[in-house]
Amino acid sequence: RAGILYVNPQDLGWNPYVASWIERRSDQSEKANLTILFDKYVPPCLDQLKTKFKTIIPITENSMVQTLCSLLDCLLTPENVFLDCPRELYETYFAFACIWAFGGALFRDQLSNFQEEFSRWWQKEMKVVKFPSHGTIFDYYIDSKTKKFVPWSDKIVNVDLDPDTPLQAVL
How far apart are CA 67 and CA 89, in angstroms? Predict the structure, then answer.
Protein backbone atom coordinates (compact mmCIF):
# COMPACT_ATOMS: atom_id res chain seq x y z
CA ARG A 1 0.00 0.00 0.00
CA ALA A 2 1.03 3.52 -0.64
CA GLY A 3 -0.18 6.52 1.21
CA ILE A 4 0.01 9.94 -0.34
CA LEU A 5 -0.04 13.00 1.81
CA TYR A 6 -0.88 16.23 0.06
CA VAL A 7 -0.07 19.50 1.77
CA ASN A 8 -1.44 22.63 0.19
CA PRO A 9 1.39 25.21 -0.06
CA GLN A 10 -1.04 28.03 0.89
CA ASP A 11 -1.87 26.22 4.14
CA LEU A 12 1.80 25.82 4.96
CA GLY A 13 2.86 29.35 4.01
CA TRP A 14 6.32 30.67 3.24
CA ASN A 15 7.81 30.43 6.75
CA PRO A 16 8.99 26.78 6.59
CA TYR A 17 10.86 27.42 3.34
CA VAL A 18 12.56 30.50 4.80
CA ALA A 19 13.43 28.71 8.04
CA SER A 20 15.03 25.89 6.06
CA TRP A 21 16.90 28.35 3.82
CA ILE A 22 18.20 30.35 6.80
CA GLU A 23 19.28 27.16 8.56
CA ARG A 24 21.56 26.33 5.60
CA ARG A 25 23.46 29.60 6.08
CA SER A 26 26.72 29.14 7.98
CA ASP A 27 27.20 32.31 10.06
CA GLN A 28 25.12 32.58 13.25
CA SER A 29 24.95 36.39 13.24
CA GLU A 30 23.84 36.27 9.59
CA LYS A 31 21.07 33.82 10.52
CA ALA A 32 19.85 36.19 13.25
CA ASN A 33 19.96 39.20 10.91
CA LEU A 34 18.10 37.37 8.17
CA THR A 35 15.38 36.14 10.52
CA ILE A 36 14.73 39.72 11.66
CA LEU A 37 14.77 41.04 8.08
CA PHE A 38 12.35 38.41 6.77
CA ASP A 39 9.91 39.22 9.58
CA LYS A 40 10.28 42.95 8.94
CA TYR A 41 9.98 43.08 5.14
CA VAL A 42 8.15 40.05 3.76
CA PRO A 43 4.71 40.32 5.46
CA PRO A 44 4.11 43.99 4.48
CA CYS A 45 5.26 43.33 0.90
CA LEU A 46 2.99 40.32 0.53
CA ASP A 47 0.04 42.22 2.03
CA GLN A 48 0.51 45.10 -0.40
CA LEU A 49 0.84 42.76 -3.36
CA LYS A 50 -2.44 41.07 -2.45
CA THR A 51 -4.41 44.29 -2.18
CA LYS A 52 -2.85 47.12 -4.17
CA PHE A 53 -0.65 45.84 -6.98
CA LYS A 54 -1.06 43.68 -10.06
CA THR A 55 1.61 41.37 -11.49
CA ILE A 56 2.09 40.53 -15.16
CA ILE A 57 1.17 36.91 -14.42
CA PRO A 58 -0.16 35.33 -11.23
CA ILE A 59 2.72 34.50 -8.87
CA THR A 60 2.27 32.61 -5.62
CA GLU A 61 3.62 33.99 -2.36
CA ASN A 62 5.93 30.97 -2.04
CA SER A 63 7.39 31.66 -5.49
CA MET A 64 8.14 35.27 -4.62
CA VAL A 65 9.78 34.25 -1.35
CA GLN A 66 11.82 31.58 -3.16
CA THR A 67 12.92 34.25 -5.63
CA LEU A 68 13.94 36.44 -2.71
CA CYS A 69 16.04 33.63 -1.25
CA SER A 70 17.67 32.95 -4.63
CA LEU A 71 18.55 36.61 -5.03
CA LEU A 72 19.97 36.67 -1.50
CA ASP A 73 22.08 33.60 -2.34
CA CYS A 74 23.61 35.63 -5.16
CA LEU A 75 24.01 38.85 -3.16
CA LEU A 76 25.15 37.63 0.27
CA THR A 77 28.58 36.49 -0.86
CA PRO A 78 31.83 36.88 1.11
CA GLU A 79 32.82 39.69 -1.29
CA ASN A 80 29.65 41.66 -0.46
CA VAL A 81 29.07 40.87 3.22
CA PHE A 82 32.17 40.06 5.23
CA LEU A 83 32.25 38.43 8.65
CA ASP A 84 30.81 40.67 11.36
CA CYS A 85 29.72 43.29 8.85
CA PRO A 86 27.16 45.83 10.06
CA ARG A 87 23.50 44.86 10.07
CA GLU A 88 22.78 47.89 7.85
CA LEU A 89 24.73 46.29 5.01
CA TYR A 90 22.65 43.11 5.28
CA GLU A 91 19.53 45.26 5.26
CA THR A 92 20.66 47.12 2.14
CA TYR A 93 21.18 43.88 0.21
CA PHE A 94 17.97 42.43 1.63
CA ALA A 95 15.95 45.49 0.57
CA PHE A 96 17.43 45.33 -2.93
CA ALA A 97 16.50 41.64 -3.22
CA CYS A 98 12.98 42.32 -1.87
CA ILE A 99 12.40 45.06 -4.40
CA TRP A 100 13.17 42.75 -7.30
CA ALA A 101 11.55 39.62 -5.84
CA PHE A 102 8.26 41.38 -5.08
CA GLY A 103 8.26 44.28 -7.53
CA GLY A 104 10.10 42.92 -10.54
CA ALA A 105 7.03 41.33 -12.15
CA LEU A 106 4.57 44.15 -11.52
CA PHE A 107 2.30 45.16 -14.37
CA ARG A 108 2.95 48.29 -16.40
CA ASP A 109 1.14 49.76 -19.41
CA GLN A 110 0.04 53.19 -20.73
CA LEU A 111 -2.66 53.57 -18.08
CA SER A 112 -1.08 52.14 -14.95
CA ASN A 113 2.43 51.62 -13.69
CA PHE A 114 2.40 49.35 -10.65
CA GLN A 115 6.20 49.41 -10.44
CA GLU A 116 6.09 53.16 -9.94
CA GLU A 117 3.34 52.81 -7.33
CA PHE A 118 5.33 50.07 -5.57
CA SER A 119 8.37 52.38 -5.59
CA ARG A 120 6.38 55.21 -3.97
CA TRP A 121 4.92 52.81 -1.39
CA TRP A 122 8.38 51.37 -0.60
CA GLN A 123 9.99 54.77 -0.12
CA LYS A 124 7.11 55.90 2.10
CA GLU A 125 6.96 52.75 4.28
CA MET A 126 10.47 51.25 4.27
CA LYS A 127 12.60 54.18 5.38
CA VAL A 128 15.67 52.47 6.84
CA VAL A 129 17.43 51.85 3.52
CA LYS A 130 17.72 55.19 1.74
CA PHE A 131 17.44 55.38 -2.04
CA PRO A 132 18.38 58.39 -4.16
CA SER A 133 15.45 60.78 -4.48
CA HIS A 134 15.12 60.87 -8.27
CA GLY A 135 13.75 58.01 -10.33
CA THR A 136 12.28 54.83 -8.87
CA ILE A 137 13.82 52.21 -6.64
CA PHE A 138 14.13 50.02 -9.74
CA ASP A 139 16.56 52.50 -11.32
CA TYR A 140 19.41 51.60 -8.94
CA TYR A 141 21.74 48.75 -8.09
CA ILE A 142 24.27 48.33 -5.28
CA ASP A 143 27.83 49.07 -6.32
CA SER A 144 29.98 46.24 -4.95
CA LYS A 145 32.89 48.53 -4.11
CA THR A 146 31.15 51.52 -2.50
CA LYS A 147 28.07 49.59 -1.20
CA LYS A 148 25.95 52.56 -2.35
CA PHE A 149 23.04 52.75 -4.77
CA VAL A 150 24.15 53.72 -8.27
CA PRO A 151 21.93 54.19 -11.34
CA TRP A 152 21.73 51.24 -13.71
CA SER A 153 22.26 53.78 -16.48
CA ASP A 154 25.91 54.09 -15.35
CA LYS A 155 26.46 50.49 -16.49
CA ILE A 156 25.04 51.04 -19.96
CA VAL A 157 27.67 51.54 -22.63
CA ASN A 158 26.72 53.93 -25.40
CA VAL A 159 26.75 52.07 -28.71
CA ASP A 160 26.74 53.84 -32.05
CA LEU A 161 25.47 51.64 -34.84
CA ASP A 162 26.10 52.34 -38.49
CA PRO A 163 22.66 52.40 -40.14
CA ASP A 164 24.16 50.92 -43.33
CA THR A 165 25.54 47.82 -41.56
CA PRO A 166 23.20 44.81 -41.61
CA LEU A 167 21.99 43.71 -38.18
CA GLN A 168 23.47 40.20 -38.63
CA ALA A 169 26.93 41.75 -38.99
CA VAL A 170 26.54 43.69 -35.74
CA LEU A 171 25.57 40.62 -33.73
Answer: 20
